From TrEMBL:
Identification of the protein by name: HTH araC/xylS-type domain-containing protein
Annotated keywords: DNA-binding, Membrane, Transcription, Transcription regulation, Transmembrane, Transmembrane helix
Transmembrane stretches, start-end: 6-26, 38-55, 67-90, 102-123, 143-160, 181-203, 215-234
Organism: Kordia antarctica
Keyword DNA-binding: yes
HTH araC/xylS-type domain residues: 447-551
Gene Ontology molecular function: DNA-binding transcription factor activity; sequence-specific DNA binding
Signal peptide residues on this chain, from the entry's feature table: none
Entries under PANTHER family matching the protein: ARAC-FAMILY TRANSCRIPTIONAL REGULATOR
Length: 559
């Protein structure tokens, strides 16, 4: 005899409906990205888990004993799949791969226990008593599933917070937009877990309560939230996927493939948020800084600091003395101004830093206690990473970081440091070119080309070319390129785009253009396509034009 009532009928139909919706989406949309696939599987597993519980309540399992063979501890698998979804959403899939087998241990353990229980039922409880089977299903399973859900929830939330820190130089609005939807889901699931806990406590403290009736509100609440998650995910995950494609495009346009081998490039692609923050820093900073010392201090203060390190020192090589002296610092060594606390000099070939200067190869020391070359600076630390800095093939210095934690530095840190070293090389080369050409801010050619941009708005021409401008001011295109590169710190394309971006920013924050579509403003400024506009704007500002407009309403009243 089946036991039907209004509540279990509603729950049964709701779970079936959710399952059908998600399966229809899977088979009709041809979803490619892992983030959406993981989310869909999470909804499928949770819907099936609820169907299992409600089938016991209705009596399907008693009437059709074969259904008991299909019972699976999905309550231990759902949090793992949601963790996979979270890591894919945050582009931290490597983190999930590292721990996935550990996370699957509870599911595997209870799958084996359920297998024994199923066999036991079909041999008329010859292995385990009915009381023991009941305790496994109602006590061990449910209590441990709730505990596992809480632990996984805390672990995932800490991953989200770490991701927010890793975004570094990105704006607060950008970070919030990236994580708000995910954190809202987590807060909802945490509240549902609290509801689950209160339900269990109510059952345990009231001896007169029996059956599954007490669980009806909990199951209905879970289903209602899953339906909301599903509806919200349709548009949001499409938007997130588009953002990932845009970031990948911007990443590819940064010409990193010219600087790194494919293996190193693959590592950098797994750390896109940090890479984009570093590229954004070098693209939007340092233009007005023309002294080597100031440049190096600015890099450590505003770029290295975003990597959440304890200590970092940049050494420059004195070729005559063949020693490395500390030029800039981040951490305990930093003092007011451009001063270093008790600066050290290290001979080439001595210590880990000196070895890097001598061999030209990086050093990643997982435990400094096991390396006799280690030289204590302000305090002894347990791991060290040192990367050489070159300018036109000649060693210029060494970027060195230490950490108090053993085995702290990873392959990720190494390639991010090498990226910073290569970008620092480009900036130092620009400073050398400026000195070699004897170009000053009063350079007439530079002032003339700036005048053409400011006064005659040459940048509004989508077909503007270096050769056309050079003919207009009667110098060679090659020399004009050197002048622009040395004085602005940008290549010709970025130099022109900087004027376009400035005009776009002014219009986006001006009330007279509030009804103008963002793309129209970009095209009027001289960009010849939507992709060129969006990629350049994000490269220069660290955010999309739409986000900028939301963040800077009516900032400027005059053009």
């Amino acid at each position: 005899m089946l036991h039907w009532n209004l509540y279990n009928t509603t729950i049964f139909i709701g779970a079936i409906g959710l399952l059908v919706l998600v399966l229809y989406r899977i088979f009709t949309k041809k979803i490619q990205d892992k983030t959406t696939r993981y989310f869909n599987w999470f909804l499928i597993i949770t819907a099936v888990a609820i169907l299992q519980y409600i089938s016991f309540d209705i009596g399907f399992t008693r009437k059709y004993r074969v259904l008991a063979l299909l019972v699976t501890p999905f309550e231990f698998l759902a949090p793992v799949i949601f963790t996979a979804f979270t890591c894919a959403y945050l582009q931290k899939e490597k983190l999930f791969k590292k721990y996935k087998y550990y996370l699957l241990i509870p599911f595997a353990a209870f799958f084996l226990i359920y297998t024994v229980v199923k066999i036991n039922v079909f041999v008329d409880y010859a292995i385990l008593s009915r009381e023991t089977v009941g305790n496994i299903r109602m006590e061990w399973n449910e209590n441990l599933a709730l505990l596992f859900t809480f632990v996984i929830g805390v672990w995932n939330y800490s991953s989200i917070k770490k991701y927010e820190k890793d975004l570094g130089k990105m704006s607060y609005d950008f970070v919030l937009r990236k994580t708000k939807w995910l954190k809202n889901m987590y807060m909802t699931l945490i509240l549902l877990s609290v509801f689950w806990l209160l339900t269990l406590l109510y059952i345990k403290t009231n001896v007169n309560v029996s059956g599954n009736d007490t669980y009806y509100p909990l199951w209905i609440a879970y289903l209602a939230c899953y339906y909301v998650f599903y509806m919200k995910s349709i548009s949001h995950l499409q938007y997130i996927q588009k953002e990932k494609v845009d970031e990948q495009t911007a990443f590819n346009l940064s010409s990193l493939d010219e600087l790194f081998e494919p293996s190193a490039l693959a590592v950098l692609q797994r750390n896109q948020s940090q890479v984009i923050a570093i590229l954004s820093y070098f693209a939007t900073s340092l233009f007005e800084i023309n002294k080597t010392k100031e440049v190096l201090w600015d890099i450590l203060e505003n770029c290295i600091s975003k990597l959440q390190l304890e200590d970092c020192v940049l050494y420059l090589l004195d070729e005559k003395k063949q020693v490395l002296h500390q030029e800039a610092a981040f951490g305990n060594k930093k003092q007011d101004g451009f001063e270093i606390h008790e600066p050290k000099e290290i001979p080439v070939g001595k210590g880990i830093v000196g070895s890097v200067a001598k061999t030209g190869n990086y050093e990643l020391i997982k435990d400094t206690r096991k390396d006799k070359r280690y030289i204590v600076d302000d305090k002894a630390r347990l791991s060290e990473l040192a990367v050489p800095i070159y300018v036109e093939g000649k060693l210029k210095g060494v970027l060195d970081a230490e950490h108090s934690q053993c085995n702290f530095f990873t392959e990720n840190h190494l390639y991010l440091f090498q990226l910073i070293a290569k970008l620092t090389e480009k900036k130092l080369l620009q400073l050398q070119l400026k000195k070699g050409l004897s170009i000053s801010d009063d350079n007439c050619y530079y002032k003339e080309v700036c005048s053409l941009m400011k006064e005659k708005k040459r940048y509004r021409n989508p077909e503007i070319k270096l050769s056309t401008l050079s003919q207009e001011i009667n110098i060679s295109a090659n020399y004009l390129s050197q002048v622009i590169n040395a004085l602005s710190g940008q290549n010709f394309s970025d130099f022109v785009n900087s004027y376009r971006i400035k005009e776009v920013k002014l219009k986006l924050s001006h009330p007279a253009f509030i009804e103008y579509p963002v793309l129209s403003i970009g095209l009027e400024a001289g960009f010849n396509s939507k992709s060129a506009f969006y990629n350049s704007f994000k490269k220069h500002t660290g955010m999309s034009p739409t986000t900028f407009r939301e963040k800077h309403p009516y900032k400027s009243q005059f053009l």
